[in-house]
């Protein structure tokens, strides 16, 4: 066999091998089922607003791919915590998924349908008790920061025997100010600051009786749990957690009736929580809004909001240091 023929044969073999590899790669990466694309324009995080009988109620959706052929995700409704979605169906711009009920009334699945158009989504949501509401959604902002902020002057949000800089929402106001302590003796209204904040550092102290429950909402959207949790394992719904999203590294809650403290830093989506002097969440990302949020407008500043509708609780020494 001459040298020229051998060279041409080797070249032809290489071409055949490359063609075979290209076909194999395409067969591996191309989704055989077009309703389950490997990468989809639907993937990502969405800030959703549900029209509940004329009242805008915030929700949130995240969609991502799992393996080559399945879209999965998680969903926060206008009540409860973030819940996993085992499969999101998406074909020809139409999406749908179902998840089991959580705190809702009714025994059916929560069902969501929608359409993706021009980087926006809209559709309908049917609750486990059979009520159907319309909703709209936009892509959630990344909120990434390239540098640490410069901090302004600390602002005291408690003090004296008057409630200043706060307003009550949701029910008849049961909050009382006594010697610098904001006291909620029973379930009732929530308290919201008149002022809104972007990035900030927050010091807050709380005392909660046995079995009670409260929470501190950052920008009115991200709840850090306040519960009677002494002796419990760290969990997504117990003291120190970002409700439904981030579990604290350890449980450092004190006995019911004792004063606890949080020192919280929120920069964009990144949160650090120091509970009773121990760092239990260190610069972790909050994916989206938690249940009970005031709105889903994540790109905007928001107020501080403390929960008073889940049982008795007291707060004191609330000091916020906003970024300049």
Structural overview:
The protein has a nine-stranded antiparallel beta sheet with strand order 4-3-2-1-9-8-7-6-5, with no helix packed on it. Strands 10, 12, 13, 15, 18, 19, 20 and 22 form an eight-stranded antiparallel beta sheet that branches. The termini are far apart. The longest helix has 27 residues, at 3-29. The chain contains one helix and 22 strands. Mean pLDDT is 90; it is low at 1-9 and 15-39. The protein has 324 residues and is mainly beta. The chain folds into two domains: 44-139, Porin, CATH 2.40.160.90; 155-322, Sandwich (Jelly Rolls), CATH 2.60.120.560. It comes from Dyadobacter pollutisoli. Residues 155-320 form the 3-keto-alpha-glucoside-1,2-lyase/3-keto-2-hydroxy-glucal hydratase domain. InterPro entries: AL/BT2_dom.
Keywords:
Jelly Rolls; 324 residues; disordered N terminus; nine-stranded antiparallel β-sheet; DUF1080 domain-containing protein; mainly beta; Porin; signal; AL/BT2_dom; 22 strands
General form: globular
Low-confidence stretches: 1-9, 15-39
- Helix-residue proportion: under 10%
Write down the secondary-structure element order: HEEEEEEEEEEEEEEEEEEEEEE
Q: What is the typical, i.e. mean, pLDDT?
A: 90
Biggest sheet, spatial arrangement of strands: 4-3-2-1-9-8-7-6-5
Stated plainly, the CATH topology of the largest domain is called: Jelly Rolls
Q: Architecture of the largest domain, CATH level 2?
A: Sandwich
The number of helical segments is 1
Oligomer: single chain
State the fourth-level CATH superfamily of the largest domain.
Exo-inulinase, domain 1
Number of strand elements: 22
CATH class of the largest domain: Mainly Beta
Number of domains: 2
Radius of gyration (CA) equals 25 Å
